[in-house]
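Section 5.1 Outputs to date
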Amino acid sequence: MMKLAQGIALGLGLVLIVGLGLLKHTTGLPETPNESAVLSPYAGQEARDIKALSDADIQGLLAGSGTPFGGMAKPAELNGYPGPRHVLDAAEAGELELTSEQQGQVEALYAEMRSRAIELGQRIIDVEKSIDEAFADGTISEEWLQERIEESARLYGQLRMTHLKYHLFMVEILTPQQVAVYNTLRGYTSGDPCENVPEGHDPELWRLHHGCG
């Protein structure tokens, strides 16, 4: 009788194991936990010197450029308000004609903007570094953190304003035709810049400038 009971138990166990295997097969469930379901998109960033800032962000902040945080001046740049640095680049490449007066005005404004942006960028880096270090060494407190976050937000707002307002100045200096040329040069048109080379431009240089294949 005992042997019969053991046999029945063993048989039920085998049925259960086979049944679970079939369930996994029919439902597509993995036999082991799916690591990708829990893997953080931040994986690897724990090695950063300042966890909240990428190397590109830091380099952009130190250089006074508008590239950090996904682009500081996109609302202006993508709505037809040229940026001073790109205006100077286009003029230097011979793609945008500026009068000597315009050239001087843009150069002065760019130098002013860059100086202010570098100052603010360094201060943002310092604040974010202090936040990172406080979390790392366990000295963080809610009150202290609140102060640093508010300071970081204030500096970010000032930096964004610094970049955006100089785009406003450009439309006061450039003619509407120059602004239109700038937008075409930057690829802000409904057509494909790789397929629509403006009259008067060298096709090869134009496509190279726009990264056309």
